[in-house]
Amino acid sequence: MERTVYSSEHRQFGESIAGFVADDLLPQLPRYRADGAVDRAAFARAGALGLLGLAIPSRFGGSQADDYRFHTVAIEQLAAATHGLSSTFTIHFDIATPYIVDLAVPSLAERVLPRLATGDAIAAIAMTEAGGGSDLAALTTRARRVDDGWVIDGSKTFITNGGIADVVVVAARTSDRGARGISLFVVEAPTAGFTPGPTLDKLGLHESNTAELFLDGVHVAEDALLGQVDGGFTHLMQRLPQERLSSAVANLAQARTVLGQALDHARTRSAFGTPIGSMQHNKFAFADLSARIEALSTFVDACIGAHVAGRLTTSDAARAKLLSAEVEHDVLDAAIQLSGGAGLMADNPIGQAWVDGRATRIWAGTSEVMREIIGRDLGL
Ligand SMILES: Cc1cc2nc3c(=O)[nH]c(=O)nc-3n(C[C@H](O)[C@H](O)[C@H](O)COP(=O)(O)OP(=O)(O)OC[C@H]3O[C@@H](n4cnc5c(N)ncnc54)[C@H](O)[C@@H]3O)c2cc1C
C-alpha cells in the first residue's frame, strides 16, 4: 500500500541514510561485529549527515528537524539493515539525546549537545539494573546531594553503547518514595568512579555495544541533574512512548527486509520440481505475513502522525511496539523455516536476523509490559 506519511523531503533524507548504511556501515559490519561495537568514524559520518543532531537545536550545532518523521525515516533505513546498527544510532540521537535537549540546564546543554551533534561524543541511557528492568520504580542506584552537586553509587546493566559512551543519562534514586523518588543525571566519561564493564557477550546484535556500568562514588556537578529532583520517573514515562514508537518502526523495517529475503529464497529454491514458494502452504504463509505487515504499517504510520501532532498515547505506542515485535517474530520464524538448514548457518542473513530479532520482544519494555499497559488502558 502506498504510504502517505512522508514528504519528498523526508524521503530524500531517508535516501541519504540508506547511502550511509550501504557505503559506510555494511562494508564494515564484520569488523564491527568482531569488535563488539560500531567505531567512532561511523558516528562522525552520521554526525556530518545530520543524523545525530536531528533532535538538537541549531544553536547547539544540531540539524534540528522539528519533525519526528525525519527520525523515523532514518530509523527505517538503519533497521532495514540490522537491528544492531539501528539500536546503536537510535539510542544516541532518538532516545538519550532528547532528554538532554528537553531537560538540561544551559551550561550542561552547551557542554554536551554540540559534541553529540557531531558524533564527537556518543550517548547512552542507563535505566536497567541487574535487579530488574521492567519494574523501573524499584531501581536502587542512588544519588545523594553534596555541597557542590551529587554523588552517585550503583550499577546498571544491558546498556546499549555502554562501553563506548561519553555521555550517559542515568536514572538514580534520590529519595525512598518509590517511583516518585527517582531523578535523572548526565554522567560524562571519563569521571572518577565511573567504569564500564567489558562488552557483554550477547547471542546476537554483536555490532551493537552492550555493557554494564559501575558507578562508585561518582561525583557530578549540580548542572548534571536533568529536570526535576524526584521527577525522573515522570520524565521517563513522558518519553517512553517515543522510544516504543521508534522500536515499532525498526521492527517493521526489519520484518519487511526479512520477508523480502525469504521471498527471494522461496522463488528460487525448488523441491519436488517446483519453487517452494508456490506450494500452497508456503504461499499462504507469505500471504498472511504480507497482509499483517501492511496492516501494521498503516497503524504505525498513524502513530507516527499522531506523535508529530503531539497526540500519541502511551497505550497506542505500546500497541505498536507489541504488535510489531510479534509480527517480526512470526516473519523471522517463517523465514528461517523456509530457509531449511541453510537458515541455521551463522553466515546466513536470515539466521543472523532471527537471532538478533529475538531482543525486540524484550528490550524497550517487554511484550508482557506492553500488554499490561494496554490492559490498563482497557480498564482492566
Ligand atoms: C540488547 C539489549 C539492549 C538493551 N539496552 C538497554 C539500554 O540501552 N538501556 C537500558 O536501560 N536498558 C536496556 N536494556 C534492558 C531492557 O530494557 C530490559 O532487559 C527489559 O526492560 C526487561 O528487563 P529485565 O531484563 O530486567 O527483565 P525482567 O524485568 O526481570 O523481566 C523478566 C520477565 O518477567 C516478565 N515480567 C515482568 N513484569 C511483568 C508483569 N508485570 N507482568 C507479566 N510479566 C512480567 C517480563 O516480561 C519478562 O518476560 C537492553 C536489553 C537488551 C537485551
Keywords:
380 residues, alpha+beta, 4-stranded mixed β-sheet, 4-stranded antiparallel β-sheet, 11 helices, 16% strand, binds flavin-adenine dinucleotide
What is the topology?
Layout: H1 8-25, H2 29-35, H3 40-48, H4 69-81, H5 83-103, H6 106-118, E1 123-126, E2 142-146, E3 149-160, E4 167-173, E5 182-188, E6 194-199, E7 210-221, E8 225-226, H7 232-268, E9 270-271, E10 274-275, H8 280-308, H9 314-339, H10 349-357, H11 367-377
Parallel strand pairs: 1-4
Antiparallel strand pairs: 2-3, 3-7, 4-5, 5-8, 6-7, 9-10
Poorly predicted runs of 5 or more residues: none
Q: Strand-and-helix sequence, N→C?
A: HHHHHHEEEEEEEEHEEHHHH
Shape: globular
Determine the mean pLDDT: 97
Rounded to an integer in angstroms, the radius of gyration calculated over CA atoms is 21 Å
Number-wise, the strands total: 10
Query: Into which percent range does the helicity of residues fall?
Result: 40-55%
Side-by-side strand order of the widest sheet = 1-4-5-8
Bound molecules: flavin-adenine dinucleotide
Secondary-structure-based class equals alpha+beta
Characterize the biggest β-sheet: 4 strands, mixed
Output the number of helix runs.
Answer: 11
Per DSSP, what share of the residues sits in E-state strands of 2 or more residues?
A: 15-25%
